[in-house]
């Protein structure tokens, strides 16, 4: 459950509780949006949350329009938890779960659990990067990407040696299982693909660093 990605849409009105900080403390990767339009922008940018929490009470709205927009925008049917103020008749508005305030953060987590992905048997978790080797899926900074078997092998080696410089030829030899290491341009291409999967800005990588003339280092 750790590092599941939750899209939280909530305002900052003092008279209603907010949940983003508490969810982060519980180990979730939280994408915080202060409006429905901001949340839709995140989906447009390729973010793929597991669950959305629409804190309609903090936004002083019914949340109906936000829920409908999220359902229309998400490629897969995004499970939504809709939070309402106490009292009054509440419509589900397409949400999977509706909660009326007050309630604890733990109750919120318990109601989200059925919609959160389980990890495969072989999962590597270093810093913000979570690699599910079995399902060939990497999650980082709220994004989720499916990798080719070779990219999984490449990232696995870099994660196992995180903080260390892995020489280009050694990396190429191990990933491609060959002694021929004179042409490592293919490695460079795969590194660029990997950066697209884990970096916020692949052109200015913060995690997968090139050490000129030597190789690559994963900094997390």
Verbal overview:
This protein is an alpha/beta fold. It folds into two domains: 5-115, 3-Layer(aba) Sandwich (Rossmann fold), CATH 3.40.50; 123-218, Orthogonal Bundle (Arc Repressor Mutant, subunit A), CATH 1.10.10. Helix content is 33%, strand content 23%. The chain is built from eight helices and twelve strands. A hairpin with a 2-residue loop joins strand 6 (123-126) and strand 7 (129-132). Helix 2 runs parallel beside helix 4. The relative contact order is 0.11. The model has no long low-confidence stretch (mean pLDDT 86).
Describe the structure using short key phrases:
single chain, 220 residues, alpha/beta, Rossmann fold, Arc Repressor Mutant, subunit A, 2 domains, five-stranded parallel β-sheet, 8 helices, 33% helix, 23% strand, elongated
């Amino acid at each position: 459950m750790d590092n599941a990605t939750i899209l939280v849409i909530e305002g900052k009105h003092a008279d209603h509780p907010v949940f983003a900080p508490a969810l982060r403390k519980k180990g979730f990767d939280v994408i915080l949006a202060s409006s429905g339009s901001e949340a839709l922008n995140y989906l447009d940018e390729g973010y793929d949350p597991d669950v959305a929490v629409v804190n309609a009470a903090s936004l002083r709205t019914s949340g109906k329009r936000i829920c409908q927009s999220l359902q229309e925008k998400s490629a897969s049917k995004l499970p939504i938890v809709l939070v309402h103020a106490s009292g009054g008749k509440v419509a589900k508005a397409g949400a999977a779960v509706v909660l009326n305030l007050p309630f604890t953060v733990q109750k919120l987590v318990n109601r989200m659990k059925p919609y959160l992905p389980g990890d495969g048997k072989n999962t590597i978790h270093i810093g913000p990067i979570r690699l599910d080797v079995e399902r060939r899926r990497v999650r980082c900074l709220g994004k989720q990407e499916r990798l080719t078997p070779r990219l999984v092998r490449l990232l696995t080696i870099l994660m196992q040696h995180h903080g260390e410089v892995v020489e280009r030829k050694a990396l190429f030899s191990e990933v491609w299982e060959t002694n021929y290491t004179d042409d490592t341009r293919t490695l460079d291409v795969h590194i660029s693909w990997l950066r697209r999967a884990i970096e916020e800005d692949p052109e200015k990588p913060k995690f997968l660093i090139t050490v000129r003339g030597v190789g690559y280092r994963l900094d997390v």
